[in-house]
Amino acid sequence: MLEVQTKNYIFKSFADCRGCVERALKDGAVFSVGGAWTDPWAKRLGLPHVIVENSVETILNALESATQLRRVQVEEAEKQCLFKTQSEMYQAVLDFTHDAILAIDENGRIQVLNPPAERIMGCRAADSVGQPVEAVLPNTLLPDVLESGEKQLDQIMQIHQTLCNTNRIPILVDGQRRGVVATFQDVKQLQNSEQKIRLKLHEKGLVAKYAFNDILGDSPAIRSTIQIARSYAASRASVLILGETGTGKELFAQSIHNASDRRDGPFVAINCAAVSNSLLESELFGYEAGSFTGASRGGREGVFELAHGGTLFLDEIGEIPRETQVELLRVLQEKEIRRVGGSRVIPVDVRIIAATNKDLLQETVEGRFREDLYYRLDVLDLKLPPLRERGDDVKILGLHLFRQLPGGKDPIMQSQFLYLLEQVGPYQWYGNIRELQNFVERANILMRNAGASSVTVSDILRRRAEPAPEPCQETESRDRRAIEAALHNHPGSMADAARSLGCSRQTLWRKMKKYGIQR
Description:
Blueprint lengths: L13 H13 L5 E3 L3 H8 L3 E3 L4 H41 L3 E6 L4 E4 L1 H7 L3 H4 L4 H4 L5 H7 L3 E8 L2 E12 L2 E11 H18 L15 H14 L5 E4 L6 H10 L8 E5 L5 H9 L17 H4 L4 E5 L6 H13 L1 E3 L6 E3 L3 E6 L3 H6 L5 H7 L2 E4 L9 H11 L7 H14 L7 H19 L6 H4 L12 H17 L4 H8 L3 H11 L4
Parallel strand pairs: 1-2, 8-13, 8-14, 9-10, 10-13
Antiparallel strand pairs: 3-4, 3-7, 5-6, 6-7, 11-12
Helix pairs in contact: 1-2, 9-10, 16-17, 16-18, 20-21, 20-22
């Protein structure tokens, strides 16, 4: 341990001791340690010598000292290894981060300059470390931050030919300014990163697929509506789309988004009527891990976070319960959300487009919808015309839908289909585009199976031209009992309950809300 070359010589009698000393001298010994027998022979033969008398206690002390010395050596080696590992990790972070990093000490001299900073500044770290920062990079403002101790965030500066976004952060140790760290981001690289993010959004489906050119029709009603919607696209104000079921509310919402300056951001849609009241808040605002039974381990983003920088389409906004309306109003006013079960406030930049087939103004009068939320949403309103007010658009839309089906490009079948549409007469199309689509699909199937010429309108049109009467009280009572029984028989699965009733989950949620049934 002491790095001293030693050799042991063992003897059993006083007579043998002289031979040991002579061998030691012959081997080149310059100092000896031994007992009382060794001392006279060493002095007689000219070898410096010291007498050590051992005991059990001294041997144990020596072993303990040796053990402690070894322990110190091992701990020091471990500290050095840990320090070296941390240094390598920090160096890897500096070398391979996308941000350029420049650090100066309390005297304004460069201490750190990573490879991205070398590329932007056009210099080498080996030549720059230890130099005054202003001699290497004029007008950095780092000395100003060192003097003031105030951080500077999101500053734009030109470094040679590169436009950069920079942050300058003072380093404080026990309240004393010991240096400044600056990070630089090439604005062009940031734009490239945003482009990659947009591609990822496309992969996730958070995009608007339709534009105004995809809206078919030539009637004055639809052309006027499109013109108004185009003007709304130039604004960032909230839009409330009003219209009957099947009039194309999401089609217009996507078109407004794609014509706006948010077209490169995400488009996120949520049907408020398709989510249960207990889950709607977490779907809108997200939730933290463990906030409720069944929550994902890492928590989850809500639609507001997903739509950051883009547009959020809230379909069936009239179905949101009163308690959630309060939270939604706060988000629209403050432009920040707090996840369910969390305390962190997250700023969001989202344009809201809402849609409903209800008369929200009447809903506010009757106390089912908050008046302040209504006026927050209804900054710009867009009324979509029903199909019965669009004249010959029925033929345009019907023929377009027919062409998408098997055999729909056959001129003879197209001609027969248009003849059937003319025979419909002044039909009201209460289901609008969806009902027309059902009509087209039934006509296509019957025309291919029974022959185009043998199909009549009565074979296809199974619904009366007048609106269906309101369900009587007895029917509502029967529906309520059936729903309650299905929920009782399938307590753990809404899908199974809906399946037993012969309807979709969305229809089941609607009826539960209508009748005030809780799970």
